[in-house]
Amino acid sequence: MREQPRLLAFYGDDFTGSTDTMEVLESQGVRTVLFVQPPTEDRLKAFPHAQAIGVAGVARTMNPVAMEQVLEPLFQRLIEMKPHVLQYKMCSTADSSPDIGSIGKVVEIGKALFHAQRAVPILAAAPHLQRYTAFGNHFAAYQGKCYRLDRHPSMSRHPVTPMKEADLLRHLSEQMNGNIGSFTIVDLELPPTERLARWETAIEAYDALVIDAMNAEHIRTIGSLIGQEAESSTRFVIGSSGLSLSLGAYWRQLYGLTTRQEQELEPEQVLVLSGSCSPITQNQIDTAVQQGFSKIKIDALELLAENNPGARSKRVLEEAERSWRNGQSLILYTADGPEDESIGRLHDKLLQDGEPVSASGERIGRRLGEIGKQLIAALGIKRVVLAGGDTSGFAALSIGLDALELIQRTAPGAPLCKGCSMDPAIDGIEIALKGGQLGQPDYLVRIASGGKGE
């Protein structure tokens, strides 16, 4: 067997997407550690087994100026690790805009750092999550049906970056300078020699290249095309966990990687902290309550109020502690789905205060994390779920997480992880970060049961 090099370094534009990437890499035998901040050399020494190093971030909530300030030095740090591939992990729903979480801005940053590289490959599709791209147009499943993204019941109404355009070439061209092309399903299904020639032509012709994918065979083909290029020097790519999966499958075959055994877990009371507005999360909360969970709704405006926030937090903590000591798993949440009237009130308040709507994710996430940390310390909580792609990362930071390693692939894109921290009360905690669009209806029940459901 060949010596195994550092295969991948990645930055995730939100925390839930970062754990999704860790999950799919582990499924292919690529041992992965996900850090909350870029690790020092000394910290890396604690994880000598890591073949992939990830950094979970929050660029999905940033404006282009902030993205450049954060991403350029961070990419430089990851390049120093000499991976075969450096990936900017984007959400598989491609939700972004010229002003918030601009994927086009990431192309520009990558092109500036990788002067010799030709087109930056972009793969939004993740067929294992029922996210597909065909002839540049993006689709996602919802409750058993597949929708073009601009007609998707949830993503077309995202509170910060609603998707109004399903054509990714048009969507991304509004976010970047330079030209953008596509590598379609027709190209992917060409005979190998013709496919490679088409690939070489395409990456020479464009600054960015949107890649289609509809099935597992397309994913394997893409991994081979990019993986072979990366044998000679580090390649910069942008993509969902579908791209991570494609590369992992290539390396699994090349290096003979094997998947490690997942841990068997016992049932455990669960604390759920949800800042999600998704109807999928709402359904999961309703299902969990039907199965005996307790829930406490927190008014977002009260949560963020500057006047006497300690008193408000104290009331929430007291109610939460009473519920927990009754032996019930507990959900603290801020919204009943996308139609909750509190969302509009919160956005109006932010605008009145001169803050962008996108600030809601950070402000809610950090306050939920503060409450969660107090409850964990007071009650000895051992298993936690953070729900909400825009809020969970900030909640994780407030809780004090340092790094994550996979424990169990409970649901595609939303695994249960071991949390590492310098805080003894947090170190070793079992924690799942779940994006709003991910997980089965009984996802929270599965987490509490320690298994994968019936």
Automatic annotation (TrEMBL):
It comes from Paenibacillus soyae. Keywords: ATP-binding, Carbohydrate metabolism, Kinase, Nucleotide-binding, Transferase. Residues 8-246 form the Four-carbon acid sugar kinase N-terminal domain. Residues 271-444 form the Four-carbon acid sugar kinase nucleotide binding domain. GO terms for molecular function: ATP binding; kinase activity. Belongs to the four-carbon acid sugar kinase family. This is Four-carbon acid sugar kinase family protein. Gene3D superfamilies: Four-carbon acid sugar kinase, nucleotide binding domain, Putative sugar-binding, N-terminal domain.
